[in-house]
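REQUEST FORM: STRUCTURE PREDICTION
Request ID: SP-0412
Submitted by: Lab K.M.
Chain count: 1
Length (residues): 129
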Amino acid sequence: MTDAELREKTKHTAAMLFHTLAGGTGFETWKKFDRDLARELSMFFTGKLYAREVISQTQRELCAVASLTVLHRPHELRAHVHAALNVGATRQEVAEVIFQQVTYGGMPVVVDALDVFKAVLVERGEWEE
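STATUS: Completed
RESULT:
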C-alpha cells in the first residue's frame, strides 16, 4: 500500500468510526505535542489496525468497549461507544458487553461505563428517560 493509499484509508476509517464524536479523538491532543508522531500513530491505529478485515468493525468496536470498560478508561470508552454505534452495534449489544464485564472488572467499572454510555446517547440525541 502506498503512503497516499494509507492516508486515504486512515481518513476513511476515522470518518466511519468517529464522525459523531464532538470534540474529536485523542488525535487532536496528540497533534498539539508532536504533529508528525500523531500522524504516524493515527495511520497505524486507524489506517492499519482498525481497518483490518479479519473481524467485522462491529465486533472490533464491541471488543474495544469491553476492554476499555474493564480498564476504566472513560475518555477512550466514549469514543469507542460512538464508534460501535456508528458501525452498527445496537444499544442492547453495547449495554450487554458492558454488563458482561462485571465478572472481570467489578460493578464499579460497569456503573461508570454505563454512565459513559448514557452520556453518549444524550450527545447523539438518543437517550429517552
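NOTES: The two ends are 48 Å apart (CA to CA).
Reviewed by: T.R.
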